[in-house]
Design a protein that fits this description.
By secondary structure, the chain is α+β, with helices and mostly antiparallel strands. It has five domains: about 1-125, no CATH class; about 135-235 and about 355-475, Dna-directed Rna Polymerase Ii 140kd Polypeptide, Chain: B, Domain 6; about 235-355, RNA polymerase II, Rpb2 subunit, wall domain (OB fold (Dihydrolipoamide Acetyltransferase, E2P)); about 485-530, DCoH-like (Alpha-Beta Complex); about 535-585, Alpha-Beta Complex (DCoH-like). About 20% of the residues lie in helices and about 25% in strands. The chain contains 13 helices and 34 strands. The strands form ten sheets. Strands 12-26-13-24-23-30 form a six-stranded mixed barrel. Strands 5, 6, 7, 8 and 9 form a five-stranded mixed β-sheet that branches.
């Protein structure tokens, strides 16, 4: 007997699970049972599960009976003419929605030509196996699956116009591209997704060649002239806010310009940009340590009031200022109230971002790399027809990755640009390479996409023909300006005396084994002395008993608490973390001995 569960609750048993499946499937297709019902027969445990709950991912498949699809040519024509709608096909049992569990009991074919009598369903299109971002990648059936996954990740990280009303929003860490464009090589999904309304890249001229060794290891070389014309220029927005909080006893915060009596008052120079209401003016150019919202708060502890019974109205400074390395222009100020009725000041900072060395770029095929060199336009190689590429891509990035789709897009983009039309690059249903080559030849170019190039420095012709064309390139949100971090000395933790963590707090740079090896290999091993003694401390040790000794700074004498002052006490250099460990062991009544070895 097979156990039956409905929505994970036991409801009974059946003698023949196969007959029940046939019956339920037939009744569902007739419309007797609800279309939301899905079932799954677990043959290993001999259990049947029926499910009508919400929140299940379900997808449409064409029903197959006796090796033939129920979706006929007549249905397709009627759909095109608008005489029938999708709902009619579902109601008539031509298309049914399957969830992940029922899919285990289905045998689905990708194409009608491959149908056999064993098949139960047919995919509407093989494209359905891809997700939203993956199906935006053109010619992806000429690309390895791992690179397609990476390519879809790149699309998620690309900068474009994320929302039409971005100027009215206070979003955290947002980038907006200044001159986004529609891709020349599109897919079927571009129209469904309406990517024209929020594009996230630019069509550029790309050449596959080596340039002075600067584009090895996936790095890319960029034409400085393109940057000056606005290529990959973007803005970075960052919000700040200050709230006038209410405290016990009727005390409140106050947004204003702090006066000199306030505890923790900074210098007058720090408050120079604030207007009378204590808020910086819109359009102000601000840099690190500048105060953008002046604010004073009541004393943190009520005990501070009773202190000497004077200065009961001493307030503390709690202004909002920019952290180290931050800069920008005040873009918008908003004065409002929050849900608790407290006054809220919101301020947005805008940072113009011009492409620089180290910024990350990628194509839609997972070919990512950072900018390694900005070349003056006069030094860039140029084609016989005078075309100067915007980007030089390394040919060595192609063979091991096998991203043939990357190469096809270059030729397709070139054809589209010359013919003035969009090229369809939909997966499994794209314009053939043969057709693209034919169109390119008709425009008077070589059908293999190569052209004669000349060196911009010497003016001599290159022996090799250079592969060149148009491509949709994405600027990613990973920019050097967000990641650049340097530190000499600074704040340390109270307990371990080691540098604090985090770029925003001006923390230390962690150096591991591999980084150490890089210093040594670079011939800069003396840097390790400076890097590895961030918590250096001096310790007096008794050579007789190995215990930590004491230094009397008043008498300028050192002595051991156990052996007295007639023993040899040595000064050693250890990490403070080690000294802390010894102190913690002492607290467990374990007293470690330090045995010192001398070299004569």
């Amino acid at each position: 007997m097979t156990d039956i569960f409905l929505n994970e609750r036991y409801i009974g048993t059946t003698e023949s699970a196969k007959d029940l499946i046939k019956q339920v499937r037939a009744e569902r297709r007739k419309g007797v049972l609800p279309a939301e019902l899905n079932f799954h027969h677990d043959q290993e445990y001999d259990e049947m599960f029926f499910d009508t709950t919400r929140g299940r991912a379900r997808r449409p498949l064409i029903v197959v009976e006796n090796g033939k699809s129920k979706l006929t040519e007549q249905h397709i024509q009627e759909l095109k003419n608008g005489t029938i709608k999708w709902e009619k096909l579902v109601k008539d049992g031509v298309i049914e929605y399957i969830d992940a569990a029922e899919e285990e009991n289905c045998y689905t074919s990708l194409s009608e030509e491959e149908l056999t009598k064993e098949h139960t369903h047919l995919e509407i299109s093989p494209l359905a196996m891809l997700g939203l971002c993956s199906s935006l990648v053109p010619f992806s059936n000429f690309c390895a699956s791992s690179k397609l996954i990476r390519g879809s990740k790149m699309l998620k990280q690309s900068i474009g116009i994320y929302a039409a009303n971005f100027l009215l929003r206070m979003d955290t860490d947002v980038n907006v591209l200044h001159y986004p464009q529609k891709p020349l090589t599109k897919t079927f999904m571009d129209e469904i997704f309406e990517s024209d309304k929020h594009p996230a890249g630019q069509n550029i001229v790309i050449a596959l060649m080596s340039y002075e060794g600067y584009n090895m290891e996936d790095a890319i070389v960029i034409n400085k002239g393109s940057v000056e014309r606005g290529f990959a220029r973007s803005s970075f927005f960052k919000p700040f806010n200050a709230e006038e909080l209410r405290y016990q006893g009727g005390l409140v915060d106050e947004v204003c310009i702090p006066d000199k009596e306030v505890k923790g008052f900074r210098t007058e120079k720090d408050y120079r940009l604030l207007e009378e209401d204590g808020i910086v003016y819109t359009g102000a150019k601000v840099k690190d340590e500048d105060v953008i919202i002046g604010k004073v708060s009541p004393p943190r502890f009520l005990g501070e009031f009773e202190e000497f019974n004077i200065a009961t109205n001493v307030k503390r400074e709690s202004s909002i200022s920019l952290t180290r390395g931050e800069y920008g222009i005040v873009d918008m100020t908003l004065l409002t109230e929050n849900e608790e009725g407290n006054r809220l000041v919101q301020l947005r900072l805008r940072q113009p971002r011009i492409l620089e060395v180290g910024d990350k770029f990628a194509s839609r095929h997972g070919q990512k790399g950072v900018v390694s060199l900005l070349v003056p336009p006069q030094d860039m190689p140029f084609s016989a027809s005078g075309i100067v590429p915007d980007l030089i891509f390394s040919p060595h990035s192609i063979p091991s990755r096998m991203t043939i789709s990357h190469l096809i897009e270059i030729v397709a983009g070139k054809t589209g640009a010359l013919k003035g039309e969009y090229i369809d690059g939909t997966t499994f249903d794209s314009v053939s390479e043969k057709e693209i080559r034919k169109m390119l030849k008709e425009e008077g170019f070589r059908d293999n996409g190569t052209e004669t190039f000349y060196s911009g420095i010497t003016g001599k012709q290159y022996h090799a023909k250079i592969y060149v064309g148009n491509m949709y390139y994405l600027k990613l949100k990973h920019m050097v300006a967000n990641k650049l971090h340097a530190r000499a000395t600074g704040k340390i933790q109270l307990l371990t005396r080691q540098p604090i963590e985090g770029r925003s707090q001006g923390g230390g740079l962690r150096l591991g084994e591999m980084e150490k090896d890089c210093f040594v290999a670079h011939g800069a091993s003396m840097l390790l002395k400076e890097r590895f003694d961030s918590d250096k401390t001096l310790l007096y040790v008794c050579e007789e008993c190995g215990m930590i000794a004491v230094y009397d700074s008043y008498k300028h004498k050192e002595y051991c608490t156990k052996c007295g002052s007639n023993v040899k006490v040595s000064l050693i250099e250890v990490a403070y973390a080690f000294k802390l460990l010894i102190d913690e062991l002492k607290s467990l009544c374990i007293y470690p001995k330090l045995l010192l070895g001398r070299k004569y």
